[in-house]
Amino acid sequence: MANVKEIFNLMKKTSKKDLEFIDKAYNFAENAHKNHKRASGEPYFNHLFETAKLLAELNMDAVTVSAGLLHDSIEDVGVKEEDIKKIFGDEVFFLVNGVTKLGTIKYRDNKRHMESMRKLFVAMSQDIRVLMIKLADRLHNMRTLQYVKKEKQRRIAVETLEIYAPLAYRLGIRKFSRDLEDLSFQYVYPLEYEEIKTLVKKQNKKTLHRLEKFIKSLRKALAKENILNERVDYRIKGLYSLYNKLKRKKRGIEDVHDILAIRIYTETVGDCYKILGIVHGIWRPLHGRIKDYIAFPKTNGYQSLHTTIFTGDGSIIEVQIRTEKMHKNAEYGIASHILYKEEDEKVPQNYSVNWFKNLFPNILNLSGTSQTYSAINNGVPDWIKQLVDTQSGITENGEFLNTIKSDFFEERIFAFTPKGDVVDLPRGSSPIDFAYAIHSQIGNHTGAAKINGKMVSLSTKLKNGDIVEIITKESNHPTRKWLDMVKTSMAKKNIKSKI
Q1: Which residues are catalytically annotated?
Q2: Same structural domain, 14 and 118
Q3: How far apart are CA 168 and CA 240, in angstroms?
Q4: 64 in any annotated domain
Q5: For a 10 Å CB count at each end of the chain, is N or C smaller?
Q6: Cα separation of 446 and 433, whole Å?
Q7: Hey, is 454 helix, strand or coil?
Q8: CA torsion, points 17, 22, 24, 29, in degrees to nearest 10?
Q9: What string of pLDDT tens digits covers the 499 residues of the chain?
Q10: Residue 310: in which H helix or E strand, if any?
């Protein structure tokens, strides 16, 4: 049975006033929805309670958690807008009203879908907390999707997989995105879901015993080197993530070495590298599988060291090493890092809200709220500046959707200039995309390109970690052929303006 204390217990740094405010919202929502049932037959209030719990788990503020409890009160049970304003204030009303408007978004056909995307991004630009509530609402709805009519299940799942899961991922909230992906997967691709589920079950049976044995050896090795404060566990790769990897790599499951990955959590960055040295001193690493996401975080702010090793008993396993703070950031993303950032906490340069603020410059905090968006104007990746510039000229729905899908949701890679500067691009980008990402004049006069010291065709697809050198010629200019070679909207826009 629902109890408001469950919400309180999940929250940190709350005042007595905050708890009283949430309690008031809890009682109001429970009373407003007392005769309201879900498709499953259970009280509708249970959904609001679970939504608020998810927000509390993200350590959202009292206003956001309260708005989570109230987010369906206007639309579903006819509570008057004036009553929400009068009892809970303008800030809560703004968030509730924002989520209510998002409730009208339906994934039905291309035209409506494109307009829905626009509405979603507008809502995000007005206050990020509207999206947080919507993500929590959607996650609980996906957990109970089996009670929805069959004809609606796939539509809701597709919408989740295409829009909400990628948004959660790009905001760094892996705790949400992983569940949204896997819950949608079984409805969107049911046959593939069952196949992957069976494969993973078989693979895990073989691996779990070896894994536990390896963890014991690992703990002994760390203790021998006086690394005593670490925490070790393992994680199982998400089914949808595995499905995509197998499809992309075109390999069998036996060739995927991170289905089960060891995770080592420690206190400092220095300890992360020390532990990596200890692991490599005992177990041989697999060539080309050492990844330093601490020095070069992923575009959603994820930081960790990854290495794949031979365990000596015929197994190959991935080991991930990170600080506890990095793990918190990886699971909770924007919610843990920016909205409620501690003053002494250093924000990774690539952290997701940096680009979010610049992608949507109109993002604001409502007057009267005590939260501040700090550390948001530094370290913005170049691709975000390019995306902002590109979107400013977009008027057609189709072009808008294609831009967002290509430059916002798709997987990205890091390539390097010969001097070691990082260029962040969508997967599938070419040297021409790389050139335009550096400067439009370099792109416009691209003559040739070297990748890792070798001359290549301008249509070559870049890979993560490539070192790219662009050779320019004053006499060179963009041609129509270039449009078939580029991936980014910025490159396409510049090329079209010159041909």
Answers
A1: 75-76
A2: yes
A3: 15
A4: yes
A5: N
A6: 10
A7: strand
A8: 170
A9: 678 899 999 987 788 999 999 999 999 999 999 989 998 889 999 999 999 999 999 888 899 999 999 999 987 888 898 999 999 999 999 888 888 776 655 544 455 555 555 555 555 556 778 888 999 999 999 999 999 998 889 989 988 888 788 888 877 888 899 999 999 999 999 999 999 998 888 877 777 888 888 999 999 999 999 988 889 998 888 899 989 888 887 767 777 777 888 999 999 999 999 999 999 999 999 988 899 999 888 877 789 999 999 988 878 899 999 999 999 888 887 766 544 444 444 444 443 444 444 444 333 333 333 333 332 333 333 433 444 454 555 445 455 555 555 555 666 777 889 987 778 788 899 999 999 989 999 999 999 999 999 999 999 999 877 899 999 999 999 999 999 999 888 899 899 998 8
A10: strand 305-310
Place of tokens 């109970």: 144
Query: 288 is written with which tokens?
Result: 């080309």
**Letter string b/e over residues 29-55, b meaning 16 or more CB atoms within 10 A of that residue's CB:** bbebbeeeebeeeebbbbbbbbbbbbb
Measured CA to CA, the distance from residue 475 to residue 59 in angstroms comes to 57
The model's pTM is 0.72
Cβ neighbours of residue 357 under 8 Å, at least 6 residues apart?
363, 373, 376, 377, 380
Query: In terms of residue numbers, what domain contains 122?
Result: 4-173
Which CATH number belongs to the domain containing residue 286 in this structure? 3.30.460.10
Co-location of 421 and 323 in the same domain: no
In contact, 350 and 381? CB cutoff 8 Å: yes
- Report the alpha-carbon distance of residue 7 to residue 50 in Å, rounded: 9
CATH number at residue 464: 3.10.20.30
The count of structural domains within the chain is 3
Same domain, 22 and 127: yes
For residue 220 the two structure tokens come to: 């002994």
Beta-bridge partner residues of 321: 264, 305
Unique residue bearing structure tokens 């819950």: 183
Enter the DSSP assignment of 109.
S
**CA 54 to chain centroid:** 16
Query: Do 273 and 305 form a contact (C-beta atoms < 8 A)?
Result: yes
Radius of gyration of the chain measured on its C-alpha atoms: 24
Is the distance from CB of 301 to CB of 348 less than 8 angstroms? yes
Q: Are strands 316-323 and 260-266 parallel, antiparallel or unpaired?
A: parallel
**Cα(351)–Cα(300) distance, rounded to whole angstroms?**
6
Distance CA 396, CA 301 (A): 31
